[in-house]
Structure formats: structure tokens, C-alpha cells
Amino acid sequence: MNNSAAVISLEKKSKRKEIWKRIKEHKILYLFLLPCIVSLLVFSYYPMYGATLAFKDYKYNLGIMGSPWVGFKHFEDFITSPEFWTVTRNTIVISGLKIIFGFPAPIILALLLNEVKCTKFKRAVQTMSYLPNFVSWVVVVTLMTVVFTPYGGIVNDIRKSMGLEAIFFMGEKNYFYPMVVLSDIWKNAGWGSIVYLSALSGVSQELYEAAIIDGAGRLKCTWHITLPGIKGTIGIMFIFAVGGILNAGFDQILLLQQPANNEISEILDTFTLKTGLNYGRFEYATAIGLFKSVFALVLMSLTNFISQKFMEVGIW
Amino acid sequence: MKTASDQYNNEIATAIRDKIGVTIEFEGIMMSETEKLNLMFASGDMPDIVNAPYWGGDTGETAVIKKAEREGRLLPLEEELPKYENLKSVYDIGRVSQAYLDQDIDIFEGHRYVIPMTLGVPGDPNSYTNWCYGVFVRGDVPEALGIDPTTIKTSEDLYNFMVAARDYGFKDINGNDCLVATTFHEGWDYSGYGMNFAEKKVTSYTQLDDGTYTYDALTDAWVERNLFYWRMVNENLLDKECFKCNDNQANEKVGNGTALFASAQYSVVINATKMTGMYDANPEMRYVPVGPLNYADGSSLVQLETSGATGSGVIFFPTTCQNLDAALTWLDYVNSEEGMRLCSYGIEGVTYHFNENNQPRLNDDILERKIAGDTSVDDELREMGIGYMAQVTGDHRYTWWGEKAPGDEANKDPDLAAYEKLRPVEIVEGYPLSALVNGYENYETVSQFAFQGTTMNDYCQRAYFADTEEEARQILKDYQDYLTTQENGMFLDFLEYANEVAKTRDDVII
Hints:
The complex is a heterodimer of chains A (316) and B (510). With 316 residues, chain A is mostly helical. Chain A has helices spanning 2-25, 27-45, 63-66, 73-80, 84-102, 104-115, 119-130, 137-148, 154-161, 176-200, 205-213, 218-229, 231-243, 250-256, 262-265, 268-275, 282-311. The relative contact order of chain A is 0.11. Chain B has 22 helices and 15 strands. Chain B folds into 3 domains: 11-122 and 307-395, Periplasmic binding protein-like II (D-Maltodextrin-Binding Protein, domain 2, 3-Layer(aba) Sandwich), CATH 3.40.190; 133-304, Periplasmic binding protein-like II (D-Maltodextrin-Binding Protein, domain 2, 3-Layer(aba) Sandwich), CATH 3.40.190; 432-509, no CATH class. In chain B, strand 5 (205-207) and strand 6 (213-215) form a beta hairpin.
């Protein structure tokens, strides 16, 4: 036993030496990692100690660590608040719709772009589709307000000229979900397609040539070669999307909120702002944030497990 | 806030420094005051002097400042202020109300931490600012419809007036279709359209026929008033975008004459038209007052104020303040007649002169440019340090100078001046019930679900967009149920307390 333990220990030591040797050999490459590690430590790990605020009764003069503990009080307050179910449901519905309609959009766009043979046209379309990503939601929603306003907006002017009544698209409850999903697709599909386009470039051309010889058309090639070829990327992106299901898009939703859609547009993030941050209830806001994170972690683990089981794709 | 680009060496800062040896550098904020206060106290990164809203109760900015007061983050002032001639009277009853003192200032074991700002001076009604709230209509509308807007006194009158305006087919200055009625940012102030449903009172409590008090939102009158707004939205009278619009959007609608009616402060409506030059090109479109509407009991609308402020902006000094004496010396000086004149009018001979009544008046060249609407003159004055430094505690400006702001006397819009007389300031004596109820043992809890946040607004505004009146009524009832069922009916217990505590004084007002 002792001998085998000594052998394992020696093996470990030699492995460690091996790793250090490799690090020394490629030290410049590892140096490139440093900014990422530092930024992770500073912006992701260091602030984590602030999560303890969720379990404290925060006092300005005592600071985060000095404030008294109150256990799960803020979580109880949140879960027993009358808005809890409405807000959680709204968040999941909006994120769910975004996943159902918004998740496939960049994949479809990438597949379509992949089929375009004229390089100049392809690049022009790609560039145009990326641009909305760089426009802030404030600008997007302002543009939408101008376009869809019932008082002189172009869409309603067209409706009026056709003898139809003006519709307050931005304010009516029935139009809220379509507005959210479509504006989200418009803004993010182009940018999201980059990942898939890069994955597509890795699919072997020989497979297509062989398939064409066997008589496969474009649709069959897409279904049997392209999609399986980027399955891994789709799986990973899907896991991330499900993990972020409670991030329904704070700035977009806040800006699109109107009195008529308030019942279905109040999401966790806007609720946190209104009931927590605006009133200095940092601990309450942190508790909601932590609740979100834990829920997202559970969902992400579950999706990862399912994905590994059925698609053989996982992030760990 | 805008300041001189050189805050240290401009003419006014230099003159103040020469006089008292203190210079203050101002920093405005670009976020919500509550958020900024929270951030400031939580981070410990605080200026020497802070000016912030303190409207009383346990909501918004007041809640944050009170938390800081309780946790010892502010410097006590009760022993300091009597040393300064122009600051020693800031807590006098009449400047502040007894209720404000009892409920919001004197609640920290004998310490006073905040200096109330821009207070009316006892016995001087001119010291109160008349905000000139009301409903205003584009001048050519009543003309075309043959309606005298000053005869509109009830909500039904107003409704019929608006329907007639909607059906007439007016165009704005660009020839586009008009909308009927709008407001400024986030629905400010759509309540003006429903003032005929309001009682003449200063709190959100109502006295029932049997003499007991209840909360406005639990009454039928509240429901009816909100149903009136529902009718306005439902019949395309009230701008559907107004509840979420910003001032720029509102300025465009009013400035172009796209909105036929606007409800806000008259000066804001007039300013919107100045931006587009609408009055110059279309003088017939000048917005004119409607009514003013009457209260529900038929009495004339006034700007009702309590005797002494029940809330105000305040100045306080964080414990990190490096030199309280210097800060108070500066505040004392800018509240003297000489200091405030320096901050408001500038330097004698350079920017102002004295008139025959020995009152300061801006020099003619400056005044002429102001009257001509040349806004660059304000920028020039600001660069000299004029117009942003005065931090007013007791407001003597009208009594001292016959005008509150430099140029007011000569530059005041005649319509605005006339409207001030139509809706004058009226001072009511007594102890507001809203201040008395703060003593309820679970007031913080009640305050959280009933008074803080946007819950009431959310319900009401959702009701305005309901498809039918029944649906709107149901949403309003849902809010009433929400109020009375939270925390096992705590609000009903709170109202019982309100009725009990109201019996302890004979000067209670609602």
C-alpha cells in the first residue's frame, strides 16, 4: 500500500513538473491569459463577497461585513411578496419566448448567409446585420416609439391611409410580446450569427461534395451535414441561453414598459430596481439577484446534463 | 445643475471669497436623487454639503436621509445654527409646520440634522411660489369652437370641450393631425384634468359623512375620478403615450401645437412653445388657461399650502464634512440680503442697478436680451457665477426686491401673471393627518406596501387602458383589495389608528 501511495505521489509530482515545464515553455502564450484571469478575479470573484449582503440588515456605518446577519429574511420577503409569482412568471415567459423565437434566428441567418455565393453581397448583409448590436436599447426603443406612435408614426400613417384605425403598438398589451421578441431578434440575430458562421466554416467541404454526388439537394445537405456539423456549438449556446433564462433583458423591458402592459412586463430585474435599489434596500435587491443566480445555475446544470445525455455536448 | 466652467475664479465666487474666505464647488447629479444618496452613504464618498429632497414620511429620499441620520452619518446642527444670523430661524413654526418638526426633524433624540430650504416666511404669502398648475388649451381651439374656456368649471364641461376639439379636425403647425390632450414627463400632470373630482384638502385622507377618516383610494370618489381618466384614454382624448413620455417628447407635442390641451405648470407649457417659436409664427395658437376647474364642492381651485412646510429640500452635512464652520458661514452669507443679491443679480454697476425703490434690477442690456428670448445671456451670467449659488432657506426675495428671480418683473409672461391671480396661493392652518399617522407602530410596513413604489400608479394606469369600464372598475377594486388585505388587513388597523390619533388634537386637517 505504502509503495503504491509513494508511486502515485511521485506521478503527481512529475505531472506538476511537466505542467510547469509547459507553462515555462509557452510563457508568452500564458501571459495572454493574465488579463482575463485578473478581470475574472476583480470583476467576478471579488464582488462575490457582496452577495453576503443578501443575508444581512445593511447599515451604512457598519458596512457589508459589519452589518448584522438576518438569515433568509430577505428571501422570505421576496418569495412571500404578492408580486413574486407574477414577476417570476413574466421573466420566464419573456425569456422563454426569446429562446423559442430568438435562439433559432441567428442559426437560420447563418445558414442563409452560408448559402450565399456572392461574397460582396454576403459581406454587406453580414455587416448590416451586425450593426443593430451596437445601437443601445434607448435608441432602439426611441426609434420604435417614433415608427409605431399612433400620432404621426409611419406604420399608423400607412394603416390610416388604408382606412384602418391607428393602433398604439407600443402600449397595447397584445403587442407587447411580439414587440419584445421582434426587436430582440432585430438587434441580436446578426451578432449572434457570428459564432455559427465560424462553426460553419469548420464543416468539411468534402462531405458536401460526397452528398451532392449521392444526389442530395441543398435542404438535405443542410439537414444531414450542416446542422449536425454545428451541433456542438448549438448545444453550448443553448445551455448558455437556458442559464440566462432569468435575464429577460433589463434595459429593453424597462424601456418598453407601458401602463397597459405592466401586468406582463414586470420582470425580476425591473422589480429589483423598483422595490430594492430605488429605496436603498440593497440587501433585498441582492437577495433577488442571488435567487436569480442560484436558479440559473440549477437550470444550467440540468440543461447541461440533458444535453450531454442526448446530444453528447456539454460545457463541463 | 449648470455652473460656471471656472467655479473658483468667477466674479461671484471671488467676491464671496473676499468677503468670508470660503469658496464652494458645486457638483450636480445625473441620476435619481435616491440612488445617488444611497450610493453616497454606502460608499462613504460624500461632499461637505449636500442638498437633497426631504418631503417627509418614510419614502424615497427622506427614507435614505433618515436612515443616515439614525446611523450617525450626519452632523447635528441644533447647537450650531443659533450662531448664524440668517440660519437661526429655519425651524420657526410658520417656516416649517409643527407636523414637519414633529414627524421628520425632531425625531433623533434631540438632534436636528437637516436645514429645510426655500421656506415660506410667516405672514408673507408672496414668499410662496405659485406653481400655476392647470389645464391649458391652444388659443385657436376655443375660438374655432365658439367656447369661452374660462367658463369650463366641471369635468363634464371639460370632457365635452375636448370631444368637440377632437371631432373638429385641428392641425398642428406642420399640418399634421392633432391629438387632444397631453401632459409632460410620465403623465405629469394628468391629475389636472380631473381636479373637479378633488376635494379642497392637502392630504390623501377623506372625512366621511359620519365624521370618520378614510384613505382616498378606498372611496367611490377615487374610483370615479380614475374612471374619468379611463374615459379620456378610451375615447382618444388623453395622449396614450403621455404616461411614459419624457419632457423632450412632450415639448415637441406642445411646442408644435400637436396637443390641443396640456396639463402641467403654465410656465412649462409656455417654455415648450418658445423652443419652437410657435407663438411668433402662430400667435393665435398661444395656450390659454381653461377654467380653472372648480373643486368637487364647487369652490374655486387654489394652490393650497399648509402654514409652514410639511416637506422641503434640505441641506445637511455628512460626518465627513471637513469644516462645518466654513460651510455654515457660507450658507449664512448667501442667505443674507447682500449675499443672495450677489448670487442672484451679480455685481452692482456691472450686471444690475438699483431702481427708485432701492430694489436691484438687471441692467437694461441684459434685460432686453432676456425679454428677446436670447438664452445666451443666461449662459454669460452663469459664467460669472450668477444664478446657481443661492441656497435659499427663508424666502424673503419678493419682499426684499419685489421679484423672486432677476428680470421677473419686466420679463414675466403677462398670461402667467394673470393666471397666478386666477389660481392663487391659499394657506391653510392646522396639523395634517398624514403627518400624525406616522406614529403608527407598523407605519414602515404600511408605508412600504401602500405609499412607496409605484403600485398605486401601476394599478390606476393599467385601469386607464382597460377595454371596458367594468374591467377598469375591477382593476381599481383590485387595488382597493390589495390595500386592505396586505399583511392580514394591516391597512384597516392603520386607519383605525388614524381615526384614534386624530381625536388627540383639535387642529387636524386633511
